[in-house]
Amino acid sequence: MIQRFYLPLILLFLLVFQGMAMSLLPGNLAYSDYLITPHWVLVILILITIFFDHDDTYYSLLYALTFGILIDMVYTSILGVYMFSYGIVIYLVHGLKKMLHGNFIVAVLLAALGIVLTELLLFTIYSFVQVTDIPWESFLSIRLVPTIIANMIFFLLVYPLLKGRLEKWAANILSS
């Protein structure tokens, strides 16, 4: 029964620490022209979608909406942007997962796709409401590519730690 609280606690922990992620980077990278956005919560949500959710459960979508609005409240000035982006991306990943077998290659591809879609949604929304005005080419080179690389490194670090646990917790919840 206590296992039901593991996922929200992990996500809450990451929500707090992703705000401090830039301070963990070397100074020459943290204070460079690159705009790296840590999407640690999103990466974990994608893993939850692939290895914890079943075809008829949507825990990851509920967590995406909940933690998306929390990210909006803590880190942004516009409510609903991350909630919307995370919700849409997790829903799409959930749908794609139904067609694909959950293995390492699929997880890597879905994580990369999720990060790209999230960044594109955020950039589009922020451009539309005139929060950002950087050109598309600059967005690609100084934000999108560095963000994908940084978050995929995080993915590669947490994947071996969480894959088995998520599958085990899903089996335990299913059997209870």
Brief write-up:
The chain has 176 residues and is mainly alpha-helical. The protein has eight helices and no strands. It is globular, with a radius of gyration of 16 Å.
What does this 3D model show about the protein?
The protein is mostly helical and 176 residues long. 76% of the residues lie in helices and 0% in strands. The longest helix is centred in the C-terminal third of the chain and has 40 residues, at 136-175.
User: Segments where pLDDT lies below 50 for 5+ residues?
Assistant: none
Number of helices: 8
Q: Structural class from helices and strands? A: mainly alpha
Shape: globular
What is the H/E order? HHHHHHHH
- Helical fraction equals over 70%
Q: Strand percentage, roughly?
A: under 5%
Query: How many β-strands, per DSSP?
Result: 0
Radius of gyration: 16 Å
Summarize the biggest pleated sheet.
none
Set down the secondary structure blueprint.
Layout: H1 6-18, H2 21-24, H3 27-30, H4 40-51, H5 59-75, H6 81-99, H7 104-128, H8 136-175
Core attributes:
176 residues; mainly alpha; 76% helix; globular
